[in-house]
Amino acid sequence: MRTEATQSIMFLHPFLERMRDLGIPRSIISERLGVVPDEIDDPAIQVRANTVYAFLRWCSEQLDDDTFCARIGCQMARGSWAPLLPLLTQKQTVWQFLTKFSAAAEGQGGSASYRLEVEGQVALWKLKRPATAASDAVFADATAVGFFVEILRGALGKEFRSDQLLAVTSKLHLIPDDVLPATSILHGASGMTLRFPASWLEVATIVVVPHSGITEIALPAPNTKNLVEQTRRIVQRRIADPDFGISETAAALGMSVRTLQSGLGKAGANLSEIRQEVRRSLATEWLQTKDMKIAEIAASLGYTSSSNFTRAFRAWTGQTPGELRRTKCAVNAENKLE
After folding, report:
1. 3-state SS class at 99
2. In degrees to the nearest 10, what's the CA dihedral of 42, 44, 47, 52?
């Protein structure tokens, strides 16, 4: 079981792009999210949901715009959210879209669940979050309102009437009037519920044309992740940190330590073996291609001393790091003479 609700970092990419447009360094963005810079564009990386919510609040503060998240939600619905483009570019009814969206949300970290209910002539589209969600979740709720209202507005076109749509959500002031007027919002409840005529469910959504130059990224597909490979990538990025252990690796993948250990075990692997494999591969590569001192390579691989690194390298290859480097130099010299 997951220890805490998480979200793929890909959920955030429209927000990340906006922050980059403001000139905010990648290092500051990654620090806010508790990841290293190279992990920002990796769909495998899961960020704690409450960290995501705090990041959304921070983004709004940087722009001094409480309605920023709702507006980003609208932009997502128009094609700026790459992970959902496969769904946005399909011909389908609103009913089909919401059903597929609900299914896509399953298994993405447990931060939100979506359910469509039909009561006679009324449709209810509900977003619920776990009880552990922090108060900053209101910014994610506002994003959802903007996104789904725009989906409905696009489908109905000139037939869209805000007085037939009621949004029950967390904070009124986070939703701008041009997204939904205050008369169509009830605030105070956590999560989100959209109430609209059930007849809207049979209307076709607009087929979104992807924005030119949009990055091709996708949410990780539940149950099809190569856990060993994802673990290896995370370990490689954090290999210099000797304190980055099983708990930190599991958190980066959005799962409990037990789940990670079990999954790796079924694949015939464990974290220690993966770390050693990464160290061996990087050490061999760097010794032959980089102008780094052996002590620098040892530190970059998370070893506390050069002697520990040398012992490990000899166990892997039968050579010391210096011997491998000298052999490589000799081979290069011979090739030049030829």
Report:
1. helix
2. 60
Tell me the H-state helices in the chain. Answer: 13-21, 26-33, 49-63, 68-75, 85-88, 94-105, 137-156, 227-237, 246-253, 257-266, 271-289, 294-300, 306-317, 321-337
Going edge to edge, which strands form the sheet with 192-197? Answer: 113-119, 122-128, 192-197, 166-169, 185-187
DSSP count for the chain of H helices, then E strands = 14, 7
The whole-angstrom separation of Cα 264 and Cα 271 is 8
278 Cβ neighbours under 8 A, 6+ residues apart? 232, 235, 236, 239
CA distance 288 to 281: 11
Q: Are 155 and 203 in contact (CB under 8 A)?
A: yes
Q: What is the pLDDT of residues 228-243, one digit of tens each?
A: 888 888 888 889 888 8
For the stretch 325-328, contacts whose Cβ atoms lie closer than 8 Å and that sit 24 or more positions apart, written own/partner, are 325/287, 325/288, 325/294, 328/287, 328/288
The band of 194, judged by pLDDT with boundaries at 50, 70 and 90, is: very high
